Amino acid sequence: MTPTTPVETKYTKFSCPNPECSLFNQPGRGNIVHRSWTGRDKGIERLRCTRCQKEFSEREGTLMARVKLPEEKVIRLTKCQRWGVCDEGTADICEVDIKTVHRFQGVSSGRAQEHQQQVACGLEVEGVQVDEAHSKRRPKKVEWIHTALAMGSLFIVWVAFGPRNTDTAAYLIAQVIARLKEVPLFLTDGWKAYPAALLQVLGKVYRPRRKGKVGRFPKPRVVAPPNLFYAQVVPELCRRVIKVKDQASRTVEVTRKVVFGGPRRFFKQLRIKGLGSTIQTAFMERWYGTLRGWVAALRRRTRCLSWSEKRHRGRVWLMVSLYNFVIPHKSLKQGCKKRTPAMAIGLTDHVWSYREYIWLPVHPDPILKKKMDERVEQLLTPALPDALKADAPAKTRSKRTRRKRAGPLKKAA
Question: Which domain holds residue 116?
Fold first, then answer.
């Protein structure tokens, strides 16, 4: 039986995949129409954009693109990845080859990162918790996962991978600032790299005046802007342990420290933004516990370590995408209505099903990516040039003239 042409309302979810088209990546504009049916059983529909006359498949940009597997098996592959099944177990459950699992991981992770790149723009977030987690890869390699989580909605704003240093922390903070409408309130642990990273991204140059008319001019320095509020949960301060634990190894007391903004102004902002009344990173710690349960390579004492850096990072990106849009969170529940972090932040109005997720068309946007990269690069540029930050050159040492040693006295005749 030859399928008939569907109604026009079906094409509202599709958009033109041509970056040169004026209606690129804009669904629901009425420019997508039916073209023909293709495939072995004539079950795949080809569409056409009336603006640029570009023809494409209905599977373009989805997890079903260029896949010979049935829809039920692709959903099963996604569910196995969601529940942290190892690659060999996923291949056995889904009855596919291990190479098919690896290919699915590569396609789904790239699509998940591109989707996050497009939807995480212009977000309204009051507070952000930032933290890093340690993971292992084979052979004897370490992969640090840096994450920024929006308080209130529990939406994962961005994930960065790299060594545990100031550059990676500054890159993550620059990504967060570039994707939000205004500077949020920051909460982290007591790692010393975060204050330096915040000053590198958001710092302003302050040039103090010279006291008196005699003497050198003071050197300019980088200070925090007045709209930056940042606090830490400090586990150790002044060489004495502040975290107090009882006999059951439960944390009883934790010292909290306001770094930028002042204590009074900081707690006032906490109350105004509705972020509670205490300084804590519980949401971020809970996220890492969930992530380690979902990704087999991140579990404690696991033997499912990753050999490939690309697949290792791809699993994390896939979990971030499913966590934001597909999996409802218990703490976000309103009455009997289940909600996801994407619903709490206002990006969608319902919980996505696995079928809806795999059929979601995601087209790469080079223009948006270029603008975001330029914005991040601009934020990573220090406010104080290297010439001003550098100390005054040390005085060159004067060359000392070597005295010639007097030779041995000649013996008298």
Answer: 105-207+221-386
